Amino acid sequence: MNLLSLGTGSTFSRTRRRRFVFMLLMCNVLASIFIFFRVVKSHFEEVYKGHAVLPDAFVFITMQPLSTSMTVWAVKSLIRNGGWTGDVFLLTDFDTTKDISDGASCLRELVHDAKFANVHLISVPKGKNPKHLKAQVFMYIPERIRNVIYMDSDVQVTAPLSSSPLFSEEVPRALFSLTTGQTVAGVFLDAAGHAWGNCTKCDVYNSGIMLLDRHGSEEFLREWLLFQQTDAHTEDQESLEDVVNKLGVKLSILPYKYMFFQKDVLRHIISWVMWRRRPLFVHFTGLARMSASLGVCDHCDKSLPWTSWGYRKVLEDISACPSHSKKHPV
Predict the structure, then answer these.
(1) What pTM does this model have?
(2) What is the pLDDT of residue 225?
(3) Distance CA 58, CA 56 (A)
């Protein structure tokens, strides 16, 4: 009986050892697979590093009576943080040769600064609706410019463009689709919330950043302008959705992880703590709630409701224009 028990125990021990060895081998295999993919990923990141496909130019719009300070701040973030050295076209109805307003002087300081020699002011007729101008950018910029990224004045660039996978992976695909007629523009999706890293109810096109092609976007932009000019649309994003549906065209959707909204503080924290990842673009929405005393908005609510706290905290001591700065320029 004891011998039988001993034999059974030995068999059991051998079974446990085999299971243990098997689990150890599986762990080694999984670890090897993980390391392999990390090495491959790093290799391809190194291969693609410096192979970014960038647009021919960036375009901004700043119109009276809005302050130009935020626009200049956005342009400086593109050049300083984004490392952009190509053309920047700034469509404006400010007369920088005669106008002595703060807005015009802010633009003069920008274009006369040798560090921003690639910024070009382009005059547009006074009274133009800036939202309509989004659909007319190719009417005003040189014909040699084939494709652009349009950016709202409340969008900031936080990291180098050339090292971002957005420009080595996503933008090349979007440009190919544009030039071959598969899509008419590249956009991010807007959402009800982004705080947890998920794009909740991502069903609206965000027109704050748009990748456009002179020929591939031509018909779409013409129709979009007509839609915006009807009384049925108060927001350019509403008309954008309608014209896409009417024409039956497609847009290239750029991954939302590259654009955060400034108010999504929790998403910023999670992304940085877990992945050490910063968004490439930060969208400062809700500018109408900022204080006129900040030199950012000349006609907005001075009551400073709690919803504007984040914007005020970021901007209260910083101005894009040295002559307007309270402490130091951006």
Answers:
(1) 0.72
(2) 92
(3) 7
